[in-house]
Amino acid sequence: MKKNHLTICILLLGALFLSCGENEDNDTGSNICDDIQHSSSINKIMPLGASRVEGARPLYESYRYELWKSLVDDGRTFDFIGTRCDEASYPSYSGRTFDQHHEGRGGITSGLILEDLEEWLALAGAPDIVLFSSPGGNDALEGLDFDEAVDNVNAIIDLLQSYNPSVSIIIEQMAPGRADSMTSELTDYFNRMNNEVLQIADEQSTANSTVMTVDMASGFEESFFADEVHYNEAGAQFIADRYLEVLEDILE
Questions:
Q1: What is the pTM of this model?
Q2: Total domain count for the chain?
Q3: Nearest 10 degrees: CA dihedral of 125, 130, 131, 137?
Q4: Are strands 168-173 and 84-86 parallel, antiparallel or unpaired?
């Protein structure tokens, strides 16, 4: 592929990740929640990441709503925490209103998460469980250094553990983008990161804080995409089910 063609492909794919959440006045994005407080739940869950966490109904889905419904069905006591809330509409379920709190921001890189995470933790409180989505995904799309992204991911985990030494962190082996949008360079970056997080989880786990991986790449189908990188409802359900398999073993 010619260099200028590759650059255009990366920019177009990156624009899709950036399409949600940069502008707080965007009707499809998220705003700062007006009810931020420290939760007293025994299972405080923080969804952390970029646009795949944030979602942008009706354009594409986040896994959060499907996971929330599954946890409600299981009769779990839990609370999603974070400083961001959706402007999208979610139907009530089992007589309950969807808990929209999260820390997903469209287009955010690992370095920007690290830069602002301490502020978010101070406002929302320390989570018991973190769902760390697509680590380094936007770094790949912006052509940022792989080793620096790995360092940032490790530093993010360090910070989470400093706020709660017993935190459980579930870090994704991320699903790729749609096949027709994945260049060889992007594919290599995604594969390297998905292998790297296995080592990160092993090295960052402590006696009190377990860091574990969840495989979102294997079995993820082309029919799960709403666009080149984001989930439709079926894709969101797939991601939610994978998280649920892990959460069932660690929820209080």
A1: 0.89
A2: 1
A3: 90
A4: unpaired
